[in-house]
Each structure stands twice: as C-alpha cells, then as structure tokens.
Specification:
This protein is an alpha/beta fold and about 525 residues long. Helices cover about 45% and strands about 10% of the residues. The strands form 2 sheets. Strands 2-8-7-6-5-3-4 form a 7-stranded mixed sheet, sandwiched between helices. Helix 6 (about 140-155) packs across helix 14 and helix 7 (about 170-190) packs across helix 9. The structure holds pyridoxal-5'-phosphate. Its cofactor is pyridoxal 5'-phosphate. It holds the Pfam family Pyridoxal_deC. This is L-2,4-diaminobutyrate decarboxylase.
Length: about 525
C-alpha cells in the first residue's frame, strides 16, 4: 500500500483537470456569470411551480416517492444544472407541500415574505458564520441590533441580551439550560458545593398541559429526572390556571424539590392561547423562580398594531423564545432566545484557544459563540434585517393581525355550523374543531374526523392538522396565510364534512350488514 505522501489513484493530470472543472463551481469573482445564471434558473423553477400550484399538495405518498429517490445514484452526477433541476422537480418540487397556498391550513408554517427570501440568498452566498467576529464582522453587530430590537419590543430592560437560534426547540432548550444552571447556583449558595446529580434529580419545571413538548425534550437532554416536567392544569380556555400553579410550587417545596423554571406559553401550538402572564410573573417573582415565556408562536404580537397588549407581562420574563419563522413570515430557520440578564448567557460559554480565547472578551471582541450552544451558525438574522428595512415592523404586524382576524371569523362560522363542534376560541390564529353532527354515533366521531383529515390530504385540495383534545380526535386550522379568505375556510369545511359524512355512512352500512 502507498505510504502517506505518495500519489495514488488518478494520474495527476486527470486530478488536475477534475479540480479545474470543479473549481468552476466555486463561488468567486471568476464565476459570477455562472452564479447569476444558475441561481436564476433555480428561481425560475420555483416561480413556475408556485405559479402552477392549484392546491397545496399533490397527495403523493412515501411509497410513491421512495423508489424515485432511492433509484438516484448519488455517485454519478448529472453534471448539468437543468438536468439536476428536472430531477429535483420530479423528486421534490412537483409534490412538495406549498405553504403559500391559501388552502394550506395545517401547521405553524407561514408563507414567506420576499425581502426575507432575498436575505436567504444573500446570506448563504456570503456564508458569514456568526460564531466569531473574525468570521462575520458586521453580521455579528447586525444580529446584536436585532436582539436588542426584539428585547426592546418585549421590554426586557437594559441588561437584556440573547442570540439567534435554529428554532423554538433550541431556544427552549437553551433557556432551560440557563435556568438549570441558575437553580443549581442558588441551591449551591445555600448548601456550599452540593452534589450535582443529587441536585439535578430534584429540579422541576412547571408548564401547562397545553405547553410545547420541546420542554419535555429539553428536560431529558439536560439530565433532569424522568418526571421533572410537571403539568399545570388549564382552564376552560386552555390557559394555565394560576391557582394550580401556586399550589404546584408549594407542593414542590414541601416535597424538597426545586422549581427551576415555570414555562408560560404565549400562543399554545394547538389552541393559540396565551397564559395569564402578569399573574404568572407575580407568582414567579414571589417564589424566586425563573419565568420562561415560550412565545414561539405569539411573538408576532410584538409587532401587531392592534394586539400588542395580549403579551402584557412578557416583559417580566427571565427568558423568552421567539420564532420569527412562525409569525414574522420568515423562512426556516429564524428564531431567537432573549434573556433579561445577559450575564446568564455565560452558562453557554466555553473558551476554545483556536476560536474564542478568554482574552478576546477582555479585548472587547464580540464573539456570539460565547452566548450560543451552536458553533458555526447561519446569519439568519439577515432575513429579518432586510424584512424590517424593506417592509418595516408594522407591515409584518398587519399581516399577522389579518390572520388573527380570519381565525376569529372562522371560529364564529364553525360555532354556528351544526355539523361541527368547536373548541375554545384562539387568541391567535388556530381553530380547533371536529365534525360532530347531531345523531352521529359517538364511537364514529373520532374515526370520521381521522378519516376526513387523511382523505383531504390524499386529495391535496387542502391540508389541515389533527390533534387530541381531552383524548378525543379533533381537527385544527392554523391560519398563517393572509391570502386565505373566509370563503377558502368555508370551502375546506365543506370538504371535511363531505369526507366525514361519507365515512360515517359507509361505516354505518358496514355495521348493519355484518352485525357482531
Ligand atoms: C413551534 C413551537 C415550538 C418549537 O419551535 P421550532 O421552531 O419548531 O423548533 C416551541 N414552542 C411552541 C409554543 C411552538 O409553537
């Protein structure tokens, strides 16, 4: 076998030729023609597909797509941009789920604004990495301005700081990391240097029954006990009950547990409800507990011209999660964690000699990696920057307001429709309901709703989400598209009722013909 340093494989001339060809694909001053041409072709494909989309989904199944994707030989390049885009069309673009379509009503995915798409293209071409100043320069300061701006909108005060993250899950994880370390420090202050595993096993997080599952995941990743997350019951409007919260904190203290954080949700994923933040903040302040507000969904209210007051109390949080990629009409990823006391971010700090040595702090070099659980990190902030500079915050808030108004109209319509039963109204833009006409056998209600959702998705005519409410299957509209009209919603409800009624009829006939 060859030893290190001796040439192997292809002759140098072949290698040289291959490298010369490959170098043509590198983005640099010599390839600007190709850069413009290739990107324009991609833009053109997407524009054409979006222009043709008469429904949000084709209804393709994994079984139909898997063989196509599996048959592609990734070791044999097509070499040609158009051929690769043709192939991309076949395996993805043709059957992708299109969030811009007015009848996409399923999850918390927004149509995106064009200034943010411009940001996406620019940030990936320049490819700044936000971990250190020496890989980003101005991008670092721009991200800091946006963190400052967001913290200002929240009202976190002069000591606030934060960092962009990959999403609400990561923001919540980091918030819980900071809360864990602060709780450990507090317990440590009282007890010298306590045994870490012993303290960790006593830590508890309180969140409502409608809180996001990423809190559970965070607890697991942070080495907390299996039962570390305690669920606080909600009221009839699916908001955290503060009497129950106070009781739960007392119970923890009585049992020798340490409440490391209360996670309030400003915009629950299913119900779009906002926990009573001022009362929760009072309870947390009295108990000396870290208050984290998960505003992954509700953060759009920060720029709402008419509904900012719904977030009153958020300014008292120790930390806040915001997902610009949910209610600021930004492409994935765009999210941030904000903290009241910027010093708490030190729990995410590690100084590496090669990257962010401790002396950089003394020299005043702004290295965002000191505040992040990521290292190499995208300049996602660029998208929000261009959105604010081109459209401005009021424009984003007006778009969000529009979908909140639409949800209220959809709720009234459902409430008045005898075919359906609707859950408590959302404060944001979801509507949870189910098909339940008078006379439908109770055991068929769950099945009819599950069937209707699947049948609708298979047709691709519209997409809605499903969830469970108190154990019963429900359907959910998540309205984030300002282009969706009440008529769109009404049409989709008719489709759902048709599918569900067909199922109920067929099931009833089957039961009659083969009695058990
Ligand atoms: C979506 C959501 C999250 C998770 O955010 P990702 O960006 O999907 O990681 C967390 N909390 C709430 C309330 C959410 O709606």
């Amino acid at each position: 076998m060859s030893s290190i340093g001796s040439p192997t494989g292809a002759a140098p001339t072949d290698t040289g030729r291959a490298a010369a060809t490959a170098r043509g694909h590198l983005f640099n001053a010599g390839s600007l023609g190709r850069y413009r041409d290739v990107l324009a072709r991609g833009v053109d494909r997407v524009a054409r597909r979006v222009g043709e989309a008469d429904r949000p989904f084709t209804g393709v199944t994994p079984d139909e797509l898997a063989p196509l994707i599996g048959a592609i030989d990734l070791d044999r390049p097509l070499g040609d941009t158009d051929a690769a885009l043709d192939e991309l069309h076949d395996v993805w673009l043709r059957d992708a789920v299109y969030f811009h379509h007015p009848r996409y009503l399923a999850h918390l995915n927004c149509p995106v604004v064009i200034p943010a798409l411009l940001g996406e293209a620019v940030l990936s071409a320049v490819n700044s990495s936000l971990d250190t100043w020496d890989q980003s320069a101005g991008a670092t300061l721009m991200e800091r301005r946006l963190i400052e701006w967001t913290a200002g909108r929240i009202g976190l005060g002069a000591g606030a700081d934060g960092v962009f993250t990959s999403g609400g899950t990561q923001s919540n994880l980091q918030a819980m990391l900071l809360a864990r370390e602060e709780a450990y420090r507090t317990v440590g202050g009282a007890a010298g240097r306590p045994d870490r595993p012993q303290v960790l096993s006593r830590l508890r997080i309180l969140t409502s029954a409608a809180g996001h599952f990423s809190v559970q995941k965070a607890a697991k990743l942070l080495g907390l006990a299996a039962d570390a997350v305690l669920t606080v019951p909600t009221d009839a409007n699916r908001r955290m009950r503060t009497d129950e919260l106070a009781r739960a904190i007392d119970r923890c203290h009585r049992d020798g547990q340490v409440v490391m954080a209360v996670v309030a949700t400003a915009g629950t994923t299913d119900f779009g409800t906002i926990d009573p933040l001022p009362e929760i903040a009072d309870i947390c302040a009295a108990a000396g507990v870290w208050l984290h507000v998960d505003a992954a969904y509700g953060c759009g209210l920060l720029v709402s011209p008419t509904r900012r007051h719904l977030l009153d109390g958020i300014e008292r949080a120790a930390s806040v999660t915001v997902d610009y990629h949910k209610s600021f009409f930004q492409p994935v990823s765009s999210s941030a964690l904000l903290v009241r006391d910027g010093r708490t971010l030190r729990h995410a700090t590690w100084h590496a000699d090669y990257l962010n040595p401790a002396r950089a702090v003394e020299q005043g070099i702004p290295n965002q990696v000191d505040k992040s659980i990521q290292t190499t990190r995208r300049f996602d902030a660029c998208k929000l920057w261009l959105t604010l500079r081109i459209m401005g915050p009021d424009a984003i808030g007006a778009l969000f307001d529009q979908v909140v108004d639409l949800a209220a109209q959809a709720w009234r319509r459902l409430d008045a429709d005898p075919r359906f039963e609707v859950a408590a109204p959302s404060q944001l833009s979801t509507v949870v309901f189910r098909y339940r006409p008078a006379g439908l056998a109770p055991d068929l209600v769950d099945e009819a709703n599950l069937y209707a959702r699947d049948a609708l998705a298979a047709s691709g005519a519209a997409l809605v989400a499903g969830t469970k409410v108190d154990g019963a299957h429900h359907l959910k509209l998540t309205l984030l598209n300002p282009e969706t009209t009440v008529d769109d919603v009404a049409h989709v409800l008719d489709l759902i009722a048709d599918h569900a009624a067909w199922y109920a009829r067929t099931a009833a006939v089957a039961e009659l013909s083969c009695p058990v």
